[in-house]
């Protein structure tokens, strides 16, 4: 399918597609549906563009269409049913319910809601390391926009969260359209349903390796009030895409010892909440605050890793856990993320040899650093250093930690657990 050549699928196109997929000729379909060959021909060449409901039913029965295909054909023929359109307009579909608190992400939620609510930015990708909380932030954004009466369609690459909400008929129609879209068969009947209704479609966990961004753009072209929010470890790098890198939660400053100050840090708040969920008597005190702060720093405030640590504390003590993490922070974090279906080696494999070498050198500094140091490490022009830094930031391997000497002069730091990452993790990486 060529870029930019998608068009809204008419009833004629969809009928022709389904007939050919079934291997039937127009005459055979006429016999199967008890319609005339002329009627089938007129429907396929667009002479009759709004077939009667009974005609659509006979064709669907004759072709043995699934419930979803039947719904798509009805929608394309303008016979989707008033019930579907009323449900869509009056009882907006809902995102899945969140099962955890949103901590330390108010600014990100507000920024994304502002981007998507106005409709001026219609394709946004939240990128970042696995386990950083992209899905949770997307849920918060979807929930906030749904509360403002914007319909939300949620589609997840994880089968456990796969189906959008809504009535059975509406869900069937939406999912059939999305199945057709991501199978490379065009936008199908989705534009018939969505039309010009402002709608948010969330594609959670849709990675560039398995998703054609051109298919998404085709849908956006046909549905001019649609917004699409994607979560992915890597951005698509398309000119029409707004990339929103999501860093880990804030961690306590090095040398911080004040219990009240430590307790206000987002990563600490999350870890304490998680531990209390399994050990209600746990409390942050002067006796454990330093250890909790160090643990959050070693884990770089990555929520999925903090969740794993909370379960360890049910069966072991904090000092023992700290000793294990200090011995091999990368190994501990990689193992915890693997339990969530996240592979750090896979993420690192997207670095080429130079990028991996720069990452290793920066991680070894174990302190904040500036762009001038990156230029020195790359041994090349500043533009090359900027490109390397941009990639590390978008992958979530580097975070901004402050400023140095005035506005526009940022300080950065690699995720701390990367100090011990094995260079073999990037073996076979891309050199593009």
Automatic annotation (TrEMBL):
One Pfam family matching this protein: HTH_31
Domain HTH cro/C1-type per the UniProt entry, residue ranges: 15-70
Molecular-function annotations in GO: DNA binding
InterPro entries reported in the protein's UniProt record: Cro/C1-type_HTH, Lambda_DNA-bd_dom_sf, P-loop_NTPase
Coiled-coil regions listed in the entry: none
Protein name: Helix-turn-helix protein
Record organism: Labedaea rhizosphaerae
């Amino acid at each position: 399918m060529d870029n930019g050549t998608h068009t809204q699928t008419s009833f004629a196109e969809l009928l022709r597609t389904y007939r050919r997929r079934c291997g039937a000729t127009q005459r055979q379909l006429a016999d199967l549906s008890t319609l005339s060959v002329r009627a089938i021909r007129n429907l396929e060449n667009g002479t009759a563009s709004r077939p009667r409901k009974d005609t659509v039913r006979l064709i669907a029965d004759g072709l043995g269409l699934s419930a979803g295909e039947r719904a798509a054909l009805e929608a394309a023929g303008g016979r989707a049913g008033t019930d579907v359109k009323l449900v869509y307009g009056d009882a907006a579909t809902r995102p899945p319910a969140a099962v955890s608190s949103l901590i330390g992400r108010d600014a990100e939620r507000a920024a994304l809601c502002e981007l998507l609510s106005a409709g001026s930015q219609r394709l946004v990708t939240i990128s970042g390391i696995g386990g950083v909380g992209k899905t949770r932030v997307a849920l918060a954004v979807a929930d906030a926009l749904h509360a403002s009466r914007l319909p939300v369609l949620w589609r997840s690459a994880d089968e456990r969260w796969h189906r959008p909400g809504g009535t059975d008929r509406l869900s069937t129609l939406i999912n059939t359209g999305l199945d057709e879209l991501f199978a490379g068969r065009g936008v199908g009947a989705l534009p018939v349903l969505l039309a010009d209704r402002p709608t948010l479609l969330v594609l959670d966990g849709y990675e560039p390796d398995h998703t054609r961004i051109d298919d998404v753009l085709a849908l956006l072209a046909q549905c001019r009030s649609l917004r699409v929010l994607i979560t992915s470890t890597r951005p698509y790098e398309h000119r029409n895409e707004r990339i929103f890198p999501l860093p880990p939660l804030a961690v306590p400053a090095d040398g911080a010892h004040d219990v009240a100050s430590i307790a206000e840090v987002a990563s600490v708040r999350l870890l304490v909440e998680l531990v209390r969920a399994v050990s209600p008597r746990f409390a942050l005190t002067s006796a454990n605050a330093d250890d909790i702060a160090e643990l959050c720093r070693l884990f770089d405030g990555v929520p999925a890793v903090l969740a794993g640590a909370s379960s360890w504390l049910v069966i072991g003590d904090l000092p023992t856990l700290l000793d294990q993490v200090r011995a091999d922070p990368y190994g501990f974090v990689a193992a915890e993320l693997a339990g969530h279906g996240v592979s750090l080696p896979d993420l690192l494999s997207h670095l080429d040899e130079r990028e991996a070498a720069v990452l290793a050198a920066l991680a070894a500094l174990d302190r904040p650093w500036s762009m001038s140091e990156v230029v020195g490490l790359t041994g090349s022009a500043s533009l090359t250093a900027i490109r390397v830094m941009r990639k590390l930031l978008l992958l979530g391997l580097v975070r901004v930690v402050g400023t140095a000497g005035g506005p526009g002069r940022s300080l950065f730091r690699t995720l701390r657990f990367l100090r011990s990452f094995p260079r073999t993790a990037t073996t076979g990486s891309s050199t593009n």
